[in-house]
DNA sequence: AGGGCATATAATATAAATATAACATATGAA
DNA sequence: TTCATATGTTATATTTATATTATATGCCCT
């Protein structure tokens, strides 16, 4: 699922860091468009083809408040103000005009991202995106799916769990004992070979991606990342 | 329209100022209930009768983060954290657990009120009125009707409820336990197979659309939609 | 290079989860 | 009440995952 985002912001640097951060963090799940002036902003907003708008207030031409007010006459697209204005009255005015949230500069990209995801989830009934990536492998714990080179592969529950542990600890060696404790519990008294077997199946199922799982002699397994 | 609000907060003064402000500002449009400890909070949340929860983090007993996590397993009720913890990592953790917004003490009552109203508008709009779509399936929660390829299909009430949960959480895997808590309540002590049975009937009733309901082995069910 | 231990592999057996169907009970409308 | 529909239970079939074992291969150290 790709989300269409409109960033109405005259500061080129801010546009750039948002694009970079969102693109990387989401694994290209955002299609980001820009408007550099208020006039361009209102025009693009009215096209009504975006899933969410990030709106600066002080802009060349029409200001962000006005854009929000006009937009709310014809649409209830999610709107987050992102602005240097800290005063409470500005925030309240923003909410009064029907925005969904408000973040002040300088802001944390991680926080902005979290706000966007929370709002998208609420407005679209859509999923927050916490896809993990390692090389050609992608894992979505929310949907319990795995992709290698963007092609879905089916994994058994234990294989999925093993891969998830490896991806949560990219580069780190995980011992067989550690896998067993995490997945079978302390009281498991079976054969340690069981881990090998599942790793083998996991590698096979991952195809090319399986090569990223490295055996570390006498230590365990790790997920190699570049 | 009266909104039912739950305030989970151990500080009596804060509970009081919130109540006074919200009651006056909204002309008694809020029916406000309280929980003074984490344990009371989680119990009341699970009753599933509120429109929104304001959640303090540091509480006697179970903490707010835990309440949020548990709650999100069975509900997507709007949650706003309201806490003295300012750190970015706390905020991000809150969003990670699925909260909708976050406000730090000391906070402006007007701003909290604005956030609550914005969120209620968003969540009510979505759940109550909008037709949900997933592939060839359309569900109108307001009219309680379901269409597959624009042809209406008749569903039993439980089948409808199951489909609605799946569509509200498109893509997300929902466990049998989660279905049971949502639909039968946490004190249900019958057989888990009951979910399978209703899913089976639901799939059959949906015909072609039934194929979108995927079994995730050892995890539950999800609605597949790309 | 070769012995000894570690790991990979494959085949098989076991166990577990899920689908299904038939039945029993409850609920609600006519 | 009676009928129809919805729901819950249970037993069984089917599918799938998992564990065990035996054997082959590979790695590392002297």
Q: Which structural category fits the helices and strands of chain A?
A: alpha/beta
What percent strand of chain A? 15-25%
Mean pLDDT of chain A: 92
Question: Quick one: which chains have the greatest interface?
Answer: A-B, 32 and 36 residues
Q: Which of globular, elongated, flat, extended, rod-shaped describes the shape of chain A?
A: elongated
How does this structure look, described?
- The structure is a homodimer of 226-residue chains.
- The radius of gyration of chain A is 23 Å and the shape is elongated.
- In chain A, α4 links the parallel β4 and β5 (101-104).
- Chain A has eight helices and eleven strands.
- Chain A has helices at 12-26, 38-46, 64-74, 88-96, 109-124, 157-168, 176-183, 193-206, and strands at 3-8, 30-35, 52-55, 79-83, 101-104, 132-134, 137-140, 145-148, 151-153, 213-216, 220-223.
- In chain A, 42% of the residues lie in helices and 21% in strands.
- Chain A has 226 residues and is an alpha/beta fold.
- Chain A starts with a strand and ends with a strand.
- Chain A folds into two domains: 3-123, Rossmann fold (3-Layer(aba) Sandwich), CATH 3.40.50.2300; 132-223, Arc Repressor Mutant, subunit A.
- In chain A, α6 (157-168) packs across α8 (193-206).
- A five-stranded parallel β-sheet of chain A has the order 2-1-3-4-5, with helices on both faces. In chain A, strands 6-7-8-9 form a four-stranded antiparallel β-sheet, with helices on one face.
- At the A-B interface, α4 and α5 of A face α4 and α5 of B.
- The structure holds a DNA duplex (30 and 30 nucleotides).
